[in-house]
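User: Fold this; tokens only.

Assistant: Input:
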Amino acid sequence: MHKSHKIGYEEYGRRLEKRMLVEKRRHKEYEKCKYMAAELDNQLHR
């Protein structure tokens, strides 16, 4: 957690605004990966 989000578990659990920031980043990363996977799948099945 600290390496990827620059925040430790203790602070993550203690501070709501930090938790929301981390979850927002995770969601963006998830959406980006989902889009890339769909693009790759589309290219493979042409």
